[in-house]
Automatic annotation (TrEMBL):
It comes from Cyclobacterium qasimii. Residues 25-232 form the SusD-like N-terminal domain. Belongs to the SusD family. This is Starch-binding protein. Transmembrane segments: none annotated. The keyword Signal applies. Its main location: membrane. SUPFAM superfamilies: TPR-like.
Length: 673
């Protein structure tokens, strides 16, 4: 192994991302036999272990407190970062979206989107590199071999989709790096997509269907959904539509509808009617909503998510089951912060906290917290998500299951339960919360974080196993992909082909299942354009999709096709560097300025009077954290366009697509770099 000389005082995180080793003659010894690759990856079980590590990377993006999925939504038209106790959050992007901002929590997740994704890619590359270490019964035609290889291709493509949508042109390792490397260069994202398409076309032939796999493993239909999105990046819209035809008509998954609800189920609990620790009733309205297809299929009870036909690919996370993930904490992340000691909702006319902040398992304290969950408001919906999409054709649709009473949480569902109000004889004790007092003054300092509604039916789960005093979101199974998205992906593919009747048909299939009042007409689609698809995706998939990435992907398509958007604008690519072009002008930025009023109006925070939401066109892509680049001393690994350090960028490399089915050659070496 080669000895690495580190620059004094500088950590080289790029080595941690891409892998490193060191050699010297006196260190040159054979590894212990049980650690050697030929033994570790000498059979299907060993390769599956590496693959499972990559799967865990996906699950971690979804499950847990304020993870990457939430941040991706917060950089979109759907929601915003609302952790208003952190002034350096990804809010004032002109000031704090920099290569030196090390935030990696509820206030920003760009670091883990970059570094962790490369770590997960390394696990997928391990399977690809070592796929032929085992002696497969049928050689290169072995079913198990090709399923594992196809699954590794799928996961690698899943993470490269994120990297290119989030950072543009990026480093492109296709192998496990076994020697010290300090010469990485960025590749043009177009070549990355071309390779991912070739790989996924192999995967869609060989990955097994859902009926043959354990829940949690990505099946063939998940590959089809991802491949369809890559196809659309390359303007292969008819091919994308055909893939969604296969998913929708294939029988492996289907929309869950009202008639599939068991006959003995009339209600679904979306809040804790009773104290989950004692079983005694909690004050206020019942937490049971009338059963419908939406709240039942999202219900956190038993294994119904993993057994109903809606799901294509899921996170499996049952309580008290060995090997599952930690608690979801989704209520904590997505719900309003009504229980904070300094930023909660006050008793009207005073600045006394109106809700009880005491965490306990007994019946006396924190009753609203137990009932509705200890939410902390790290992501709040935009006005577009909270109001605009439910006002369709001049009607506020509360018939739609996704927005009906109880399925959709409103602040007035909460009661003032601070015991001090009872002690003082306050008339507000156990009365519904109100935003304004009798004089029209706000009853909370921070409405951004503390006062909003949201679709709680998809985030609610009971804390049974750990922290039952908090009730901020227990372990729960979660959909990563489900059949409803396949209809909306097909609707998009049809839109790009000007099949407006087909778009309306697919969107209305989703709306009919949700019992919406009005359906889309062909004229509506012609007027709203891709906005009709985006609106329905938001109604159906809020908190379930990588919303930023979807907007960026569509921005690429608008720029490649030159198709006029519903806003009357057209977009283009100058030369072949998509990143540079979209960093100047994009559908993403214009959509954000249209729908995300926080960024458009540069809304200030009440908690820090110098912090406000700001955004410029370059923020379509995010900066790479500077320490991830500084160790690449033998070449320039590009910083994202527009950020400090990008002035030193070099021309991204052009990838030559490699034939799938066998281990890859290093992309840089393949083109003579």
């Amino acid at each position: 192994m080669k000895k690495i000389k580190l620059l004094k005082g500088i950590i080289l995180p790029v080595f941690l991302i891409f892998g490193f080793s060191c050699t010297e003659e006196f260190l040159d010894e054979k590894p212990l036999s049980f650690l050697s690759p030929i033994n570790t990856f000498g059979d299907a079980a060993g390769l599956q272990t590496a693959l499972d590590g990559a799967y865990k990377g996906v699950f971690d993006q979804w499950n847990g407190d304020t993870r990457e999925l939430m941040f991706n939504s917060n950089m979109s038209d759907a929601s915003v970062v609302s952790a208003t106790d952190k002034p350096d959050a990804w809010v004032d992007l002109r000031v704090y979206a920099t290569p030196t901002n090390s935030r990696n929590n509820d206030a920003g997740r760009t670091l883990s989107f970059y570094a962790d994704n490369y770590a997960h890619i390394k696990k997928a590359n391990t399977v690809i590199d070592y796929i032929d270490f085992p002696e497969w019964a049928d050689g290169a035609n072995d079913v198990e071999r090709n399923h594992l290889l196809g699954s590794a291709y799928f996961l690698r493509a899943f993470f490269y989709m994120q990297l290119t949508m989030d950072f543009g042109n990026v480093g492109f390792p296709l192998n496990v790096v076994t020697d010290a490397r300090r010469d990485f260069k960025a590749f043009n994202m177009q070549g990355i997509w071309d390779q991912m398409i070739a790989d996924l076309e192999y995967a869609v032939q060989h990955v097994k269907p859902k009926s043959q796999l354990a829940v949690g493993q990505a099946p063939k239909d998940a590959v089809r959904v991802l491949l369809a999105k890559f196809y659309m990046l390359n303007l292969r819209f008819a091919d994308a539509e055909k893939l969604m035809d296969d998913v929708i008509n294939g029988g492996e998954s289907q929309l869950f509808t009202d008639d599939m609800i068991p006959s003995d189920v009339s209600e679904v609990e979306v809040a804790n009617t009773n104290n989950p620790n004692t079983g005694n009733p909690l004050p206020g309205r019942s937490g049971y909503a009338s059963a419908d297809a939406i709240n039942y299929m999202h219900m956190d009870k038993g294994n119904q998510k993993t057994s109903n036909p809606e799901g294509i690919w899921l996170v499996v996370n049952e309580p008290f089951v060995l090997g599952t993930q930690g608690r979801s904490a989704r209520i904590r992340a997505w719900g309003p912060n009504f229980v904070s000691t300094n930023l909660g909702v006050w008793e009207p006319g005073t600045n006394r906290t109106g809700t009880d902040t005491q965490q306990a398992t007994n019946d006396d304290r924190g009753r609203m917290m137990k009932k509705w969950g200890r939410s902390q408001g790290f992501a709040r919906p935009t006005n577009y998500s909270q109001y605009d999409i439910w006002n369709f054709k001049g009607k506020i649709d509360e018939q739609d299951y996704r927005h009906k009473d109880l399925n959709w949480f409103e602040m007035e569902d909460l009661l003032y339960d601070n015991p001090s109000l009872l002690d003082d004889g306050s008339k507000y004790y156990l009365k519904p919360l109100q935003l304004l007092d009798d004089n029209g003054n706000l009853t909370c300092e921070d409405t951004i974080r503390c006062w909003f509604g949201y679709p709680r039916y998809k985030f609610y789960s009971v804390n049974q196993q750990d922290r039952p005093d908090r009730q901020d979101g227990g372990k729960m199974d979660m959909y990563i992909m489900r059949i409803a998205e396949a209809y909306l992906v097909r609707a998009e593919a049809r839109f790009w082909q000007d099949n407006f009747a087909g778009v309306a048909e697919d969107i209305n299939t989703i709306r009919q299942r949700a019992n919406a009042i009005d359906m889309y007409t062909i004229a509506d689609i012609q007027t709203d354009g891709i906005g009709a698809v985006l609106d329905e995706r938001n109604r159906e998939l809020f908190g379930e999709e990588y919303r930023h990435d979807e907007l960026v992907r569509m921005s690429v398509i608008f720029a490649k096709t030159g198709k006029m958007a519903y806003n009357g604008k057209t977009y283009s690519i100058s030369g072949d560097d998509i990143e540079k072009s979209l960093s100047v002008s994009s559908f993403y930025y214009d959509r954000m300025m249209e729908k995300n009023t926080f960024f458009r109006d540069e809304v200030p925070w009440a908690t820090y009077n110098t912090t406000k939401y700001t955004m410029d066109p370059k923020h379509i892509y995010w900066p790479v954290y500077q320490p991830y680049l500084v160790g690449n001393v033998e070449a320039i690994l590009n910083q994202t366009t527009g950020y400090n350090g990008a002035e030193e960028n070099i021309e991204p490399l052009k990838h030559v697509v490699q034939t799938p089915g066998v281990p890859n050659e290093d992309p840089m070496r393949a083109i003579g770099e």
